[in-house]
Every structure is written in C-alpha cells, then in structure tokens.
Design goal:
Layout (H helix, E strand, L loop, with lengths): L22 H9 L11 H4 L18 E3 H10 L3 E3 L5 H10 L3 E6 L12 H5 L2 E5 L5 E6 L18 H17 L1 H21 L3 E5 L4 E4 L6 E3 L3 H4 L9 H10 L6 H9 L6
Antiparallel strand pairs: 1-3, 2-3, 4-5, 5-6, 6-7, 7-8
Helix pairs in contact: 1-3, 6-7
Length: about 270
C-alpha cells in the first residue's frame, strides 16, 4: 500500500452482522482521525459571515448527531458537549430523526473547542463519504447544502493526503461494523448524484489514490480534474473578493484586507 494512497475499501457490514460501536470503539476510531484538513484556520474565513463564529460550529447551520457510543465516550471525559435544545420545528425534527440510537448534540462553541474531544462529524465536515453506484466507499465528496457558506467547499484541494487517508480509514472501520451508517451515507451519495443530475451539474470527489475527479451528471461516469485549484468552482461569496466583502457587510461583519487576500490566495495554488 502506497504512502500516497488510502487502504482499499473494506466491505461494509451486512445488516444481520451490523453492530453499533461502543465508547471504546469510538475512542480508537477518533484517536486515529486527528489530522486537520489543512495547516490553516479556515474558520477565520467564514466567521465574518456568521456572527463571528465558524459555520460548522453553530447549530443554526448544522446540528451534530452523535452515535450513542460516541456520546458516551465524549461526555465521560469532557463537559464540552450537551444535548441539543431545539428552538423551532426544524430543530425538533433533527432530534426526532436522531431517535433512540443517536443524540442530537451541541458544543460550547469554537472558542472552547477541545481538539481531542471533537465528534466524528466535526472532524469530517464538510467532507462526506462517497458511496458509488456499485455500493463501494470509493471516494470522498462534500455536503453540497453548505456550499454557499463553507469556505473549504470552494477550496476542496487544500485537504492534505494525511487528512484524506485518516478519513478513509475512520469510515472504513465504521462501515465495517455499522450497516446503518453505511446506508445513511449511501443515501446521501444517491441524493448528491440526483440533485446534480437534475441541475445538469458535475461535482467533485477525491479517490483513494487522492486523485480529484468530476462525477458527471446522469450516470455518465467520471473525468479527471487536472488542476483542482483552478478548475473547481468557488461558491456564493467566495467567488470574488467583491462578492465576499459585500456578503460580510450584509451579514453585519467586518473583514480586513489581509483576510480577504488569504480567502482567495489558494484559488490559484496547486496544493
């Protein structure tokens, strides 16, 4: 196995052999998925658009849903996490969908983050396992619903090989035990293909050898992305410096010229 690739995919658990991970299982899984996405603080780029908080760290944007074993692990070793208290119908629906086996949770916020006590969803966001049409966890994609808010989705190429490799390993281990987790991500991948086919848009994935590819709409296969930094689309306010400045102003935030330069510096890089 090359140091420049992830291990081959592990077959997912069959329904009858499926077993939820307990606290000890999650301790091992999370301890081996600790690499940051890149050597930068991406939260500084989206925070001016979100009342000074990173998009992924506020439940107004996304509510982390922790598996029961993960919840038991994290709450036993830190007071960072608490049960999510919904304030509207959408929030109540999140709690309802979490059901008995999972917990809709919230943390104290980015200012109090404990890196070693982040949830699996925190470590993965905005990336998501991509289950292809053959049912194989062959690549990593992203949560397209956050494309207009998350800076990383406009700069997917910044993800380091170390981060990608740890991502593949973590979800391989999860899927090998928990059929329901695999099924949830399979459904998300189907939705990703359906939405982009409806719009006649392609979307990006990164394969186990860390090659970026376009998934073409309507099941027409994949094609290589030759220059990810230049070819991948920038979404929403991350399209141009002027659009970013205007969006920050509309959000009531402030941003320095230095931050603006950093936001767009990597669009021309080849990391």
């Amino acid at each position: 196995m090359s140091a420049k690739s992830a291990p081959p995919p592990t077959p997912p658990a069959k329904p009858r052999a499926s077993k939820r991970l307990d606290a000890a299982d999650y301790d091992r899984l999370l301890s081996n998925f600790a690499a940051p996405i890149a050597s930068l603080d991406c939260g500084r780029f989206c925070a001016p658009l979100n009342n000074g908080e990173p998009v992924c760290c506020t439940t107004s944007n996304a509510v982390p849903v922790l598996d029961r074993g993960e919840w038991n692990l994290l709450t036993a070793r830190t007071d960072l996490w608490s049960r999510f208290k919904p304030k509207d119908a959408a929030g109540r629906e999140v709690v309802r969908e979490a059901g008995r086996l999972c917990v809709a949770a919230e943390c104290k916020g980015a200012a109090f983050c404990e890196r070693d006590n982040r949830s699996l969803s925190c470590r993965a966001f905005p990336f998501a396992p991509y289950i292809d049409r053959d049912g194989v966890f062959s690549a990593i994609s992203y949560y397209h619903g956050f494309a207009d808010r998350c800076w990383v989705i406009s700069n997917l190429h910044i993800a380091t090989p170390r981060y990608l490799r740890e991502f593949f390993i973590a979800y391989d281990r999860l899927f090998a035990r928990d059929h329901e987790e695999w099924l949830a991500h399979k459904d998300n991948s189907i939705a990703m293909r359906r939405v982009h086919s409806r719009r006649r848009h392609r979307f990006a994935i990164v394969t186990r050898d860390f090659a970026w590819k376009w998934v073409r709409p309507h099941g027409k296969g994949t094609v290589a992305i030759r220059d990810p930094a230049r070819e991948m689309k920038a979404f929403g306010p991350y399209g141009t410096p002027a659009a970013y400045r205007a969006a920050v102003k509309d959000a009531g935030g402030q941003v320095s010229d230095k931050i603006v330069r950093e936001v767009f510096a990597r669009r021309a890089s080849k990391d």
